[in-house]
Predict the 3D structure of the following.
Amino acid sequence: MDENVQTLNRLYKDQHGIVVNVVGYDQDKQRVIYSRPGYEWECAAPLIIFRARFTRIDK
């Protein structure tokens, strides 16, 4: 991961009920980096979209 990315390990659920693992947050670009089950590559979404579509399930 990039040096400007904060490493995280948090679980969220998307609007379809699929659990994803948030692995990082890029503060410079304000995007969330996460992994989906069955996907080979990491996914990324702008923070504003991620907040609207995902709910944290671990606290």
The longest helix spans residues 47-53. The mean pLDDT is 94.
